[in-house]
Structure formats: C-alpha cells, structure tokens
Amino acid sequence: MQTDIRRTLLEMFTNAEGEYVSGQRISDLLGCSRTAVWKHIEDLRKEGYELEAVRKKGYRIVTKPNKVSTNELLLGLHTKKIGQNLHYEETVDSTQKIAHRLAQEGAVEGTVIVAEEQTAGRGRLARKWYSPKYTGVWMSIILRPAIPPQHAPQLTLLAAVAIVQAIQEVTNVLPDIKWPNDILVNNKKLVGILTEMQADVEQVHSVIIGIGINVNQKLEHFDSDIQHLATSLSIEEQKEVNRAALMQAIFLKMESLYEDYLENGFGLVKHLWESYSISIGKRIIARTLKATIEGHAKGITNDGVLLLEDDNGTVHHIHSADIEL
Ligand code: BTN
C-alpha cells in the first residue's frame, strides 16, 4: 500500500478515536472505490492493525500493532527534518552499521534508522548492547552539522538532554544523566547513547547518534548478572509505555535543541545537561584506559570533556572513562 494512502487512512481512524468511519466516507476521502477501500483495510490488517467492520456503520480501529513502524512514527509527527526520512526494519545486526552506510550514500540530515530488534547491537567501549524484539527503542539518527570534529561530543550531550526531556513528557519517570552519556533512574541504566562520526581533519561529514532505550522489558528479560544494574521505563512506571510516542517526543525535542545549537552554540545544551547531571558537584571515581582517578567532578568544558579535580588540586580533563558515583 502506498505510504500516503496508509497515512491518510490511519489519520482518519485516529481522529475518529475508536468510532466507526463509513466505507463511503473513506472512499470519498481517498478518492477510490469501495472495493479499493476494502483492499486497503486488508493491507492494514496484514500489518497487524485490528480493524472491525460492521454493516451500515463502517470500520473502526480496535488495536494497533505493538510496532514502531513508519506508519506509527510518521502519524502526527511535526518535525521538519528529524524522523521525516525513516528506515524501518524488523531485525538488523546494528542500526549504527546501516546508518554509516546510508550516511556515506548521502542520506539527508535527520534520517532515522529504527529496528524492532538488533542481533549485534553495539555499546560504548566495544561492549554489546542487548536489544530484544518489540521491547525497546533501538535507533540511529544521522545529523550533518557544519562543526569541527572536536565539537561532535556536544551532540551526545544534546541527545541526552532531549531524551531526558522526552521521557519526562511521555512518562512520570525523572531520569538523571551520568557523564558522558548514560541515562539512569535510581542509579540503574535506562538509556545508552553511542555517537560516531564520519569526518576529515577540519569538518564533520555526518554524526550518527545511536540511541538505545529500555522501554517495555520486564526485570526477568535482563540477564541475571545485569538485573541490579539495568531498568526499563515500564519497570519504573509499572505499565507499558508507547514506544512510538516516546520516539516522536525525542525527535521534536532534539530538533528544537539542535536548531538552537546551530544558531547560538552549545550554551543552552550545556546548561540543561548540567542541570540533569548527577555526576557534577559530586565525588566520583573515573576509570580511564590508563588510570583510575578519584576526585570532585567540577563540570564540563565546551567540548563536553569532564573536569575532575583530585585531592591534590590537579584538574584532570577526562575524555573517556567509566564513572562510579
Ligand atoms: C552504551 O554503551 O551505553 C551505548 C549504547 C548504544 C546502543 C544503541 S541501540 C541503537 C544503536 N545501534 C547500536 O548498535 N547501538 C546503538
């Protein structure tokens, strides 16, 4: 089925809020025959929409599939760029890998690659990212900012702020950010962000922001060795969370922060990031590849580097580390 017909049909059913829409009205609005309407309805059923048909009343939507399909994500999405060009897959190895390929092939800014499941999801520091089917948000967003490569980490912080704001809008969960890019609730990991880029010495070609959010997993879905370290929105909320609504909120927040960032610089993001951070102002331990440094987290630089003052008063610039609070 063509995407625009599908979109119009779903819009119609969504606006009807569970009430019946007559076959005649649908055929008028789509400008097609009643037989063609019936065919479109069958196509939606094949995609997992449960639609009820009653003689003389018409059709109504009973349930939507538990998917973050292009249909669900585009319906009512009011961004200019982010998410408007969507690549949806049921199963992929890693959305990051696909995003790198599409970026190289010239994908437009704001392109999003989303999957229901990743078989080889990648985390920071060459770790694996567990991404089971239909339970989380596993996506990569392609941006093309005209910035020098050393500023790219600022976009990780921008994404973290957008995600925290979106989670607060869609749920009652109030997450914190742990430097550089973990989003936690009660000290348990909820979200991971992996930012990678394609660049030459002077200029960024593309920044790929990979976002993994544990949304509807139950505790037993996590391996027993990480159950005390990880959580999901549904564990915190004690109910299922609509993944498509969450993603749309992220796209909107990200777009508005990104526009401000391109126009006015890093100031707003830095300020918001520090306000959501649980590392800043605290005593922390930073484990880098070379050393373990304990001290007071003073803040971040304009490049997103963590400033850590040890007990001798030396301020260390931490570019990459695991942080213990
Ligand atoms: C982390 O280690 O905290 C970062 C995890 C990032 C996971 C996301 S899921 C979508 C995207 N595709 C990947 O393979 N990884 C990122």
From TrEMBL:
It catalyses: biotin + L-lysyl-[protein] + ATP = N(6)-biotinyl-L-lysyl-[protein] + AMP + diphosphate + H(+). It is an enzyme of class 6 (ligase). SUPFAM superfamilies: C-terminal domain of transcriptional repressors, Class II aaRS and biotin synthetases, Winged helix' DNA-binding domain. The keyword Lipid metabolism does not apply. Residues 74-262 form the BPL/LPL catalytic domain. Its EC number is 6.3.4.15. Keywords: ATP-binding, Biotin, DNA-binding, Ligase, Nucleotide-binding, Repressor, Transcription, Transcription regulation. The keyword Repressor applies. PANTHER family: BIOTIN PROTEIN LIGASE, BIOTIN--PROTEIN LIGASE. This is Bifunctional ligase/repressor BirA. It comes from Priestia flexa. The lineage of its organism: Bacteria, Bacillati, Bacillota, Bacilli, Bacillales.
